[in-house]
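The methods section describes the discrete structure representation at length, but only in general terms. What matters is that the chain and its backbone geometry are given together, residue for residue. Nothing conveys this as quickly as seeing an actual entry. For illustration, here is how one protein appears when written out as sequence plus structure tokens:
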Amino acid sequence: MLEPDEHIFHVATREDWQAAQRSGAYRTSTRGRSLDDEGFIHASRRGQVDAVRRNFYGDESEPLVLLEIDPARLDVDLRLEVPAGADEAYPHIYGPLPVTAVVAVHELPD
């Protein structure tokens, strides 16, 4: 269970985030996979961000940003789930992420 006022995070390419700002909703689940492909958008808690970036985006050449999301602003289902092969729960967003739920965008260094 998330703590009250706890934000969640999503690593995104700057290009995907810019496209979301134009359309009003973010629809990339994870690197190379859309919401339609996966059924949800992968997210993480603060302490999980570094491992997600290293494991899934370590060789990404495009500029990356970290989306900081306020779960209270989501209008879709958010579930904490333990993915296959993982030993801890990760937040999964079951629907498009409205850009209005993103409260900060942090540039990630190369």
